[in-house]
């Protein structure tokens, strides 16, 4: 999700973290009070910083998670997803997208627009 919208969707972020903990993820970092903040990356082409919504470990592998909710800035969200996908592939990590009911179509359309249709969103 885009940084400006994080405060609006804090409850869904918390629900996503609980879902991941139930699935066996450890050392969860999130941009939420009570959790360690994940590392931010600088995107040199635009000069913006990109921070994954959630970073967690499972079986020794690092996973980046991004929350997909309808956004006023879909172009920024697409750019963030492409960057995180590329970063995760470079370092043999994993990138997943989490969404919820009412946002499935938006998420699928966004993934098709940026040719990441091989990604299956985690539906909570």
UniProtKB/TrEMBL annotation:
Which protein is depicted? Uncharacterized protein
Task: Please name the source species.
Answer: Zeaxanthinibacter enoshimensis
Classification of source organism: Bacteria, Pseudomonadati, Bacteroidota, Flavobacteriia, Flavobacteriales
């Amino acid at each position: 999700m885009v940084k400006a919208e994080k405060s609006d969707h804090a409850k869904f972020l918390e629900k996503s973290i609980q879902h991941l903990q139930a699935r066996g993820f450890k050392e969860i970092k999130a941009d939420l009070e009570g959790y360690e903040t994940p590392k931010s990356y600088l995107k040199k082409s635009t000069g913006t910083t990109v921070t994954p919504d959630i970073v967690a470990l499972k079986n020794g592998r690092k996973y980046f998670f991004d929350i997909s909710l309808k956004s006023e800035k879909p172009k920024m969200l697409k750019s963030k997803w492409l960057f995180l996908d590329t970063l995760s592939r470079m370092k043999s990590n994993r990138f997943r997208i989490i969404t919820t009911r009412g946002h499935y179509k938006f998420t699928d359309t966004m993934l098709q627009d940026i040719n990441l249709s091989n990604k299956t969103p985690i539906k909570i």
